């Protein structure tokens, strides 16, 4: 008997399987056929939802970003967290998400655009949510920034560039964020 799944459920299953295989084999070495075989379905089903591997990779990145955003929104809406704790937790979510999915952060000569896609997606996400958090920090007197939005852009893009250069230690990034925002040393690292 043939099992029919709801289209959104099937699409999510494809995305999760693809991400798992990307992590296991690498994006370049994972084919649409590998995904279909792992799921036990015909390759045509994968192509029904995604016209190409590139489209599937973009959807995996989008799904990844949506998951990170969901965690960030939950943190930002949690009652009772201090400004410093909330900021530290947000930074932690970004770093753990990146560390847990190294295949999405890999740069390969055949596909340098993948890293740029992930970097842009996460940077936009960080700008959107951290902007609100920094503005609140200024309003509540935790931060003394004349231009919080510009400082945020410098921090996010600078951290992303450092990551590309191989600086992946969260301690370094947390220290730089603390120094740039005028926070006490170790404020953000408490969350790691």
From TrEMBL:
The UniProt keyword set, sorted, is: DNA-binding
Domain of life the protein comes from: Bacteria
Annotated ranges, domain HTH tetR-type = 8-68
Family matches, as Gene3D superfamilies: Tetracycline Repressor, domain 2
Q: Which residues bind DNA?
A: 31-50
DNA-binding among the record's keywords? yes
Q: Read off the SUPFAM superfamilies from this record.
A: Homeodomain-like
Q: List the Gene Ontology MF annotations in alphabetical order.
A: DNA binding
Which PROSITE patterns does the record match to this protein? HTH_TETR_1, HTH_TETR_2
Supply the name of the protein: DNA-binding transcriptional regulator, AcrR family
